[in-house]
C-alpha cells in the first residue's frame, strides 16, 4: 500500500509540475508583421522625432464591425491600417509626411456612415502655427487629405495638441474641441466648434475654457447631469475640471475632484474597476522636474479615485497597489478584461529618462476589485534600444473574445500582441452601440454613441460597465463603439442598458446570446448608395401592426409611456437564449489585499536625470515646464518638463515582472428560453 501511495503521489507531483509549468507559459504573442502591421520604412530610417503623443486612434472607420487604426507618429509619417475583417490589416497611405502630428481623433461628422479623421498639427515651435488636417476615404479605401478650412476651421492658427469630438449640446451630432499649446504672449489657446449638422463647424466664443493652461483632456459626465464635462490635465503642471451646461458654456469646478492630487498627470483612464456600476478615475503620473530640494526620489504616486456616489471621489490607489508601480515613469495606461473574469485589468507603458532603453510594459490583473496584482511571464517582450515606451491600447483586433494589446515606441514603431490565453471556457459578450432607433420618429432623441455609458446586467445581479470612449486618454481619441465584456462563468445576460448623453436611455432585453455580438440601436441613415444589415432598423411596424414573430424594439418617452412605437429587429436575430452552467471551481474570492506586497520584478537601476525630460528632436520641441517657457527645437516637439512626464517627449520605461493570466473552467450547456425582446428609450 505504501508503494502504491508513493507511486500515486509521485504521479500527482509530475502532474502538478506540468500544470505549474503550463500556467507560466506566455499568453501574448507578437503578431505585428504576421497581421500586416509594419511601420513604414521611412519611419525606421529616420532619427526618432519624439513621442507619438499618447496613443493610437482605434475606430471602425468604414462601418464593417472591425477596428481600423490611425497612427499619427508625431514628426514621422502618419500610418493608416484597414482591418481586412479576417483578423489582419492592410496599409493605406494618407500622404502625410513629417506633418508634426500630435493628437488625432475620428468621427462621423455628417452621419453618412463613414468616419472622418482629424489631425492636430503643431506649429514648429511657434514659428509656423497650423490648423488641423482632415483625412477622408472613398469607397475603395483610398485616403484623401483635406485642409481644415473646408470644414469651417482655421479662424486662428495654433500649435495644435489635442482634438476631441463630443456632443456638447446633445443634438445628436459631434462637436469639436481643439486644444493647443499656449504661447507666452497669448491668454487664450483652445477652440470650441459647433457642428451645424451638415459636416461644417462654426467657432463658438466665450465658452469658458479658452484660457486653460493644460491641453490634455478626458471627457465624461462626472456629475451625471446629462452634459459632458472636461477634465484638463498635464504632465507638466496643473489639472482643472470644467462642467458642461449644454449651451457651449463650461463652468470651472473646484469641489468635485481633489484636483491638487492630479497635477503632473500623463494619462487618465475613466473606468469601473470595481463593478459597482459607476465610473472611477485612474491618473498615472511621473516625476517632477527639476527635483524637489533634498529629495532624491521624485516619483509622484498614481491616483485612483473611487466613485463613492453623490459626487464623492476617494483616492484608494495605495490599498489597490497602484500608487507606485516601478522606479520609472508610467507613460500611458489602457484597460481591458484580458482574462475575461469580469474585471478590468490594466496595461501600463513605462518610459525612461534618456529614451535609450525600452522596458516591458506592465500587466496588472484586477483581483475582483480588491487590488491589482502584477503579472509575470505574460509574453510581452519589447525591451530594446531606441524603443522607449510611449503608449498602449487594449482592443480585440480579431474579435475572438480575447482582448489584445497594441503598444507604441518613440521611434514610430508599433507592436501588436495577440492574446493567446486559453479562455474558451470563460464567457464574453460584444455589444455594438448605434444611435437610438427612436430618433427615426423624433429627431430630438437622436444621440451619437460617443460618450455613452453601457451596462450589462446578468441574471445573477452583476453589472459590468463600459464607456464608448478611449480606454486610457492622453492625446489621441478613439471611438470604441463595439465594447467587450468579459463574463467569466455567468449564466446569462438579462439586460443591456445604454445611457446616451442628454438623458436618453435605451434598454434592450432579449435576443442576447453569450459569446456573440449584440447590435443595439441604429448606425446611420443609410443614404443613397450605402447598404448594410443595420439599414432595415427603421419603424416598419407600430402598435396596430407588430412584428409578428420577429423581435421588436419598443420605444417611448419616459414622460409619455403611452406614446409607444415599435421597431422590428433585423431578420435572423434569434430569440433570447439563456445558458445554464455549472459553477466552476474558481479560486476563492480574496477578502482583502495581502499584507505583503507583490513582487514586482527586478528593480530597474537606470540612472534618471534630475529633470527626467527629453529633447524631442525635430518636431515642436518644447520644454513644457511649469513656467510655460519652451526650449524650442525645429519642429514643435516638447519635453514636458516638470513631471518628468515629458508628455511631449518620452520619459521612463519599466521592467515589471508581471504575473500570468489565469483561466477559468466553467462548463456550459445552452438552453433556449423564449422571451419577448424589448428595447425602450427613456428621456427625462
TrEMBL record:
The keyword Signal applies. Residues 1-22 form the signal peptide. Keywords: Signal. Residues 584-642, 654-674 have a biased composition (Low complexity). Residues 450-506 form the ASPIC/UnbV domain. Residues 571-684 are annotated as: Disordered. InterPro entries: FG-GAP, Integrin_alpha_N, UnbV_ASPIC. This is ASPIC/UnbV domain-containing protein. It comes from Rhodosorus marinus.
Amino acid at each position: 500500500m505504501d508503494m502504491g501511495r508513493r507511486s500515486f503521489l509521485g504521479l500527482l507531483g509530475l502532474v502538478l509540475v506540468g500544470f505549474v509549468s503550463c500556467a507560466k507559459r506566455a499568453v501574448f504573442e507578437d503578431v505585428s508583421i504576421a497581421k500586416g502591421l509594419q511601420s513604414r520604412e521611412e519611419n525606421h530610417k529616420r532619427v526618432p522625432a519624439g513621442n507619438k503623443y499618447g496613443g493610437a486612434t482605434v475606430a471602425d472607420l468604414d462601418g464593417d464591425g472591425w477596428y481600423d487604426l490611425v497612427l499619427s507618429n508625431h514628426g514621422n509619417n502618419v500610418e493608416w491600417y484597414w482591418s481586412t475583417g479576417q483578423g489582419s490589416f492592410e496599409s493605406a497611405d494618407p500622404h502625410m509626411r513629417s506633418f508634426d502630428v500630435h493628437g488625432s481623433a475620428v468621427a462621423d461628422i455628417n452621419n453618412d456612415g463613414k468616419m472622418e479623421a482629424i489631425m492636430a498639427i503643431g506649429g514648429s515651435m511657434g514659428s509656423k502655427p497650423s490648423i488641423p488636417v482632415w483625412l477622408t476615404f472613398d469607397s475603395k479605401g483610398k485616403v484623401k487629405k483635406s485642409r481644415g478650412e473646408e470644414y469651417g476651421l482655421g479662424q486662428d492658427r495654433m500649435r495644435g495638441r489635442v482634438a476631441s469630438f463630443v456632443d456638447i449640446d446633445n443634438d445628436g451630432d459631434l462637436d469639436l474641441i481643439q486644444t493647443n499649446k499656449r504661447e507666452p504672449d497669448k491668454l487664450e489657446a483652445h477652440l470650441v466648434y459647433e457642428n451645424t449638422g451638415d459636416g461644417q463647424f462654426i467657432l463658438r466664443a466665450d465658452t469658458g475654457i479658452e484660457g486653460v493652461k493644460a491641453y490634455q483632456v478626458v471627457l465624461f459626465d462626472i456629475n451625471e447631469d446629462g452634459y459632458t464635462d472636461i477634465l484638463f490635465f498635464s504632465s507638466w503642471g496643473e489639472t482643472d475640471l470644467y462642467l458642461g451646461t449644454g449651451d457651449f458654456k463650461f463652468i470651472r469646478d473646484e469641489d468635485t475632484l481633489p484636483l491638487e492630487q492630479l497635477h503632473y498627470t500623463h494619462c487618465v483612464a475613466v473606468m469601473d474597476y470595481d463593478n459597482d456600476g459607476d465610473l472611477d478615475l485612474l491618473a498615472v503620473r511621473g516625476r517632477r522636474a527639476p527635483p524637489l530640494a533634498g529629495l532624491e526620489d521624485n516619483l509622484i504616486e498614481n491616483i485612483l479615485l473611487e466613485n463613492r456616489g453623490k459626487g464623492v471621489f476617494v483616492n484608494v490607489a495605495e490599498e489597490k497597489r497602484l500608487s507606485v508601480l516601478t522606479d520609472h515613469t508610467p507613460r500611458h495606461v489602457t484597460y481591458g478584461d484580458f482574462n475575461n473574469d469580469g474585471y478590468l485589468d490594466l496595461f501600463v507603458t513605462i518610459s525612461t529618462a534618456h529614451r535609450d532603453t525600452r522596458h516591458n510594459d506592465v500587466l496588472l490583473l484586477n483581483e475582483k476589485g480588491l487590488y491589482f496584482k502584477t503579472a509575470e511571464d505574460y509574453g510581452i517582450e519589447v525591451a530594446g534600444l531606441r524603443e522607449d515606451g510611449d503608449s498602449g491600447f487594449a482592443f480585440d483586433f480579431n474579435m475572438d473574445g480575447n482582448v489584445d494589446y497594441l503598444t507604441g515606441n518613440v521611434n514610430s514603431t508599433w507592436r501588436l500582441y495577440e492574446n493567446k490565453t486559453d479562455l474558451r471556457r470563460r464567457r464574453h459578450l460584444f455589444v455594438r452601440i448605434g444611435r437610438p432607433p427612436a430618433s427615426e420618429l423624433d429627431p430630438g432623441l437622436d444621440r451619437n454613441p460617443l460618450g455613452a455609458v453601457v451596462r450589462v446586467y446578468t441574471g445573477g445581479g452583476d453589472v459590468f460597465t463600459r464607456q464608448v470612449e478611449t480606454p486610457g486618454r492622453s492625446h489621441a481619441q478613439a471611438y470604441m463603439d463595439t465594447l467587450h465584456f468579459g463574463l467569466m462563468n455567468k449564466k446569462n445576460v438579462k439586460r443591456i442598458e445604454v445611457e446616451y448623453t442628454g438623458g436618453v436611455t435605451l434598454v434592450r432585453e432579449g435576443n442576447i446570446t453569450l459569446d456573440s455580438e449584440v447590435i443595439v440601436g441604429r448606425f446611420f441613415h443609410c443614404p443613397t448608395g450605402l447598404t448594410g444589415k443595420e439599414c432595415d432598423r427603421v419603424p416598419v411596424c407600430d402598435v396596430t401592426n407588430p412584428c409578428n414573430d420577429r423581435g421588436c424594439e419598443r420605444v417611448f418617452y419616459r414622460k409619455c409611456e403611452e406614446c409607444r412605437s415599435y421597431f422590428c429587429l433585423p431578420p435572423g436575430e434569434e430569440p433570447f437564449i439563456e445558458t445554464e452552467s455549472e459553477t466552476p471551481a474558481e479560486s476563492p474570492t480574496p477578502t482583502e489585499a495581502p499584507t505583503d506586497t507583490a513582487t514586482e520584478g527586478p528593480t530597474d537601476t537606470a540612472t534618471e536625470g534630475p529633470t527626467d525630460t527629453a529633447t524631442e528632436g525635430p518636431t515642436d520641441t518644447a520644454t513644457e515646464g511649469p513656467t510655460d517657457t519652451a526650449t524650442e527645437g525645429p519642429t514643435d516637439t516638447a519635453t514636458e518638463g516638470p513631471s518628468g512626464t515629458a508628455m511631449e517627449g518620452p520619459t521612463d520605461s519599466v521592467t515589471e515582472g508581471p504575473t500570468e493570466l489565469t483561466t477559468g473552467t466553467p462548463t456550459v450547456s445552452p438552453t433556449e428560453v423564449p422571451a419577448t425582446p424589448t428595447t425602450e428609450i427613456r428621456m427625462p
